[in-house]
Design brief:
Blueprint (H helix, E strand, L loop, with lengths): L4 H6 L7 H6 L3 H13 L4 H22 L1 H9 L4 H5 L12 H6 L16 E6 L7 E6 H17 L8 E5 L6 E3 L6 H4 L5 E5 L4 H11 L3 E4 L1 H14 L8 E4 L6 H11 L3 E7 L3 E6 L6 E3 L3 E6 L11 E8 L10 E9 L11 E8 L4 E2 L5 E2 L5 H4 L7 E6 L4 E7 L6 H15 L4 E7 L14 E3 L3
Length: 454
């Protein structure tokens, strides 16, 4: 970037005057932003040293106030000091989602620094159906908001524009006069309009046509349906300047379709309700930068750290949460480690996020691979708006398809041949056709491939 994002913020005519910012507590947000301006450019070794110091302070606090974490630490033969040493974190057994659920009140810290502010909690079932409750302080929330705001600033968005958001946590459409936190805490913004992700693709397209957004935030699964319908009808979003995604994996073909139909790229964020914003896409190179307040380990099946270009499962440590020790949390996702980014930021990089183990195809010989189904080729045969594959056993896959009408027997045979070729195995493909959008899973998420075979 030719100009520093923090300097641009300071000169933004939409910035609220100091007396207004003081009334809503946003000075903390600006202070954290100023810190990020420095830390994102630190050499990797210096950033790791500073994170180690934060990890030590967090572990010392959690060992004193969380009975569950104290047992984990002692069971690994570790102390807060040895945990924070280079290589120490790898000696702590991962925290599984089931363990997090079963720990109950023993998981939480029964005291936390008074300077961290008020306590709040959130409960999420994610995409598994297992409810997880996490407590956090306003200090932790402020770090989450800081990373959200920095993502806007990295991508140089015009805060006076109109922001549309398709969200799983909305039960009905709503409109508010500004973008909401964190943006409205320090800036005057344009209007915001929200649409429940569960509403039909047609309803989404009508809403977007009426609201005419400059920016659109959506789950990748919602976005895919919207783009397909816009392409089918020829409707265009003429003011649109950018698309943001979160919560689900973004497939390369979706990026291609958004670029082709909407004329803009996708800026993705790796987030969860348990941890907040963990990584955001680099505006220059497209890889993902991990937040300074997160440690994202990518490990192989033996628990060894993966190197650049290698794929493994993700373990998350949330450095800002002193109310719930989320330390080496096995969040259930897989990722490919990235190389140091040429943009100059010293933050660790993830090349791509791949999804969960249950999103892998299981072959009869017991091997697994990431499923490709040839969606980009289906348009030559029959237009499908939305799809979901459920592997029932090692030989059979159920294909749930949302489309206008149904294909002829010849089209169905061609569609099956493409799917089998892309999956690299002649699975039996059973079809289930829907005129409306396919239902979402727990937490409002949608998985395009779900393996139930053993």
């Amino acid at each position: 970037m030719s100009e520093d994002w923090y300097d641009r913020l300071g000169r933004n005519p939409l910035l609220l005057p100091p007396h207004l910012r003081m009334t809503n507590g946003s000075e903390k947000l600006l202070a954290f932003l100023a810190e990020r301006r420095v830390t994102e450019r630190l050499p990797a070794a210096e950033l790791a040293r500073r994170q180690g110091a934060v990890l030590y302070d967090l572990a010392r606090h959690a060992a004193a106030h969380s009975p569950h974490f104290a047992r984990r630490l002692a069971g690994a033969g570790l102390t807060p000091s040895t945990l924070a040493e280079p290589g120490g974190l790898a000696k702590l057994a991962p925290l599984t989602r089931r363990e997090l659920v079963n720990a109950g009140d023993a998981l939480f810290c029964h005291a936390y620094p008074a300077s961290h502010g008020a306590l709040s909690s959130t409960t999420t079932s994610g995409s598994t159906g297992e409810p997880v409750t996490v407590r956090r302080t306003s200090w932790s929330e402020a770090h989450w908001l800081t990373d959200t705001l920095r993502e806007h600033l990295w991508h140089d968005r015009d805060f006076s524009g109109r922001l549309a958001a398709s969200r799983a946590n909305l039960s009905e459409p709503m409109d508010i006069p500004d973008w909401g936190p964190p943006c409205n805490l320090i800036l005057r913004t344009g209007p915001w309009s929200g649409m429940p992700a569960a509403y039909s693709v047609e309803a989404h397209c009508r809403w977007l046509g009426e609201f005419e957004p400059d920016y659109l935030l959506a789950l990748p699964s919602s976005l895919a349906g919207i783009v397909a319908e816009l392409d089918r009808t020829g409707q265009r979003l003429r003011r649109l300047r950018g698309v943001r995604t979160l919560s689900e994996t973004v497939q390369p073909r979706l990026r291609e379709e958004v670029r082709r139909v909407l004329g803009v790229g996708i800026d993705d964020m790796y987030t969860s309700q348990e941890c907040g914003v963990m990584a955001t896409q680099c505006p220059e190179e497209g890889s993902y930068h991990v937040s300074e307040m997160m440690l994202l380990e990518v490990v192989d099946s033996a628990g060894r750290a993966c190197g650049a270009g290698e794929v493994g499962r993700i373990l998350v440590t949330a450095l800002a949460n002193y109310a719930t020790p989320i330390i080496r949390y096995e969040i259930g996702d897989y990722a490919e480690v990235g190389a140091p980014c040429r943009c100059g930021r010293g933050l660790p990089t993830i090349r791509r996020f791949l999804g969960r183990e249950r999103n892998l195809a299981l072959l009869p010989d017991g091997s697994r691979h990431w499923p490709l189904v040839g969606f980009h080729r289906w348009g030559e045969v029959f237009p499908v708006r939305q799809f979901q594959f459920v592997q029932l056993d090692r030989k059979t896959i159920l294909a749930r398809m949302s489309a206008h009408g149904q294909p002829s027997p010849e089209q169905l045979a061609r569609l099956t041949a493409i799917i089998q070729e892309e999956l690299r195995h002649p699975f039996e493909i059973r079809y289930e056709w829907h005129e409306t959008a396919l239902p979402r899973g727990p937490g409002g998420k949608f998985e395009e491939f779900l393996c139930r075979a053993e």
